[in-house]
Amino acid sequence: MKAYFIFVLVLTVAYIVYYAVMITKDLHGNGEKKKSEEEEFDVSEFDAEESVSVVENDKGFNVGDNEYETHYVDETQSVSDDKEPESEKHKQDVVEAINHRIEEKMEETHATFSNPYNSAELYKLMMGKGLGNSPSNGGVTIKPAIDEL
């Protein structure tokens, strides 16, 4: 046998013995008192805390000696549409003024296509990976280099 196989054999036997001893210790204990599954917490510090009463009433609620007043807003009430808040009208006026200033500086443009295709030609171009016999190429033959590799 080679030295490597002897080393592997000895190491395997050592691991087997080691794990057998560890499993036996875990199963039978190692002389210590077994702990129960219950956890114990020290709560002696918490005796100094006092509870605070919380009372709810019609106007709000009380926490200890402090009183807090709350107001109920009925969301089912509808606000009439013709009565917009003054701040909302002011915001709309500002937006309209900004839009008017921007529109004064804008130029009117017309979009045109330099080389339009119909649906059949576009389909051929997509199938040909963008290469086709278009009149704009001036009779130049395009041969992809990837096909030659």
TrEMBL record:
Transmembrane feature ranges: 6-24
Keywords noted in UniProt: Membrane, Transmembrane, Transmembrane helix
Compositional bias per record (Acidic residues), positions renumbered to this chain: 38-50
Record field: compositional bias (Basic and acidic residues): 68-92
Region (Disordered) residue spans: 30-92, 129-149
Name assigned to this protein: Uncharacterized protein
